[in-house]
Amino acid sequence: MSILVRAIAWLLAAAVTFATLGPPGLRPHSDLGQDGEHALAFILVGLAFGLAYPRRRLLSVAAAVVLIGVLELMQFWAPGRHARLEDFLVDALTACIGFALAAAADWLFTRFRTGSAVTSEGPAE
């Protein structure tokens, strides 16, 4: 399962990198608007990496924010693209929200697993 989640996380990162640096005409568009598209993409990336690397979540968050900044700066050299502080802020914030959702999911799964183990064994004496 862990390998599958990691593969999905890296595929999402590759897709976001292509959408960020690739030709604007090949970028997917939706009714969410630019900020909505950015938010959805980076929440998914943060969630996927948060679930893929739970033991290194804080390091992953820091690396994600730095790499999001690098992606934004690389747009200076990508034809037809532009770097904007607003895009960086939306991307970094929503990636952090994705990581927080992954941490909350881990906490809930652990809590329910522990709770179901206690109820199946009966009360401790």
Task: Give me the secondary-structure topology.
Elements: H1 2-21, H2 33-52, H3 57-74, H4 85-121
Helix pairs in contact: 1-2, 2-3, 2-4, 3-4
Distance between the termini: 36 Å
**What is the H-and-E element order?**
HHHH
| Number of helical regions | 4
Strand fraction: under 5%
Rounded to the nearest angstrom, the radius of gyration is 18 Å
Which residue ranges are poorly predicted, with pLDDT under 50 across at least 5 consecutive positions? Answer: none
What do the pLDDT scores average to? 88
The figure for the number of domains is 1
Relative helix content = over 70%
**Tertiary shape:** elongated
- By secondary-structure content and strand pairing, the structural class works out as mainly alpha
How many strands appear in the DSSP assignment? 0
Largest sheet: number of strands, sense, barrel closure: none
